[in-house]
Amino acid sequence: MKKIIQFQIIKGEKYYVAQGIDLPIVTQAKTLDELAKNINEATELHLRGENLSELGFSKSPSLLVNFELPTTVNA
């Protein structure tokens, strides 16, 4: 059973966008603090009423967030 639900975060022009790797969840926010709250809320809503073991998750999975940093080119 998986104990971690993973998200990838990218920074767009105006918003940070989080996309679920394990679940079809996408959310966005202007700040990383807001995004963290949105990820928690979206995950809770998505999993509400679901049997986590049927989805391959333990009873209380953790959230892991990966943040993609832009590459810097030094001249």
Automatic annotation (TrEMBL):
<dbReference type="InterPro" id="IPR035069">
    <property type="entry name" value="TTHA1013/TTHA0281-like"/>
</dbReference>
<protein>
    <recommendedName>
        <fullName>DUF1902 domain-containing protein</fullName>
    </recommendedName>
</protein>
